[in-house]
Amino acid sequence: MMICDPYKIAEVVAHIATVLTPLAAAWWFFFTASFRKRVEFDVQCSVFRDPKSSNEKLIELIFALQNKGQVESRCYTLAYEVQSVDAATKGNPPEFLKRSGNIVPPGEPDKEEYYYVRAGVTARVSAHFWVPSEISSLRVKAFTTYDKKRHEVQQDKDLFDQMFKITDWTAVDRVFQISSSGGL
């Protein structure tokens, strides 16, 4: 038997291909972008007026976590802040109307709570608060993380400054015009 026997070489190549093919398939499965966590994050704003109270408006923020990947996602951290935006106050520091901190419930010490977002599904989380009726526009800044742990978000510090200290996040920064007729 010779080392250069073409049949033996073909047999060795076939065995190598048999081993490499499942490894390549596994690599493709685990490292293809469609199997990574891909969550699109957005916020919508609605305004409600109470006819009995002309000096306040109820604001409803809906945070949408749309899972565009093929694996489940768990949201352990979701925080937002709302600022008043007005041309009359241009050049002045913004007026903060609400700083939420982390709105995901903390849960028990050994078992953290999270918002579960199944693959291909959009989870919606709402937040409500009152603002003075003279406010005409709102700026909403929010972020969520992909980490598998809860991050504390302090209400007395800038939201995005805290976010930038975390490595794996997605954020939105939007302005909403509040109409005088009772909606957006």
Give a written overview of the molecule.
This protein has 184 residues and is of the alpha+beta class. It has two domains: 1-31; 36-177, Immunoglobulin-like (Sandwich). It is built from two helices and eleven strands, in the order H-E-E-E-E-E-E-E-E-E-E-H-E. The protein has helices at residues 6-31, 159-163, and strands at residues 39-50, 53-67, 73-75, 78-84, 95-102, 107-108, 111-112, 115-117, 122-132, 137-145, 169-177. The strands form four sheets. Strands 5-4-10-11 form a four-stranded antiparallel beta sheet. Strands 1-2-9 form a three-stranded antiparallel beta sheet, with no helix packed on it. A two-stranded antiparallel sheet has the order 3-8. Strand 1 (39-50) and strand 2 (53-67) form a beta hairpin. The longest helix is centred in the N-terminal third of the chain and has 26 residues, at 6-31. The model has no long low-confidence stretch (mean pLDDT 85).
Named CATH topology of the largest domain: Immunoglobulin-like
Name of the CATH first level of the largest domain: Mainly Beta
Residue share in helix? 10-25%
> Strand sequence of the main sheet, in spatial order?
5-4-10-11
Radius of gyration over C-alpha positions, nearest whole angstrom:
25 Å
Assembly annotation: single chain
Structural class: alpha+beta
For the record, give the distance between the C-alpha atoms at the N and C termini, rounded to a whole number. Answer: 84 Å
Q: How many distinct helices?
A: 2
Please provide the count of β strands. Answer: 11
CATH superfamily of the largest domain: Immunoglobulins
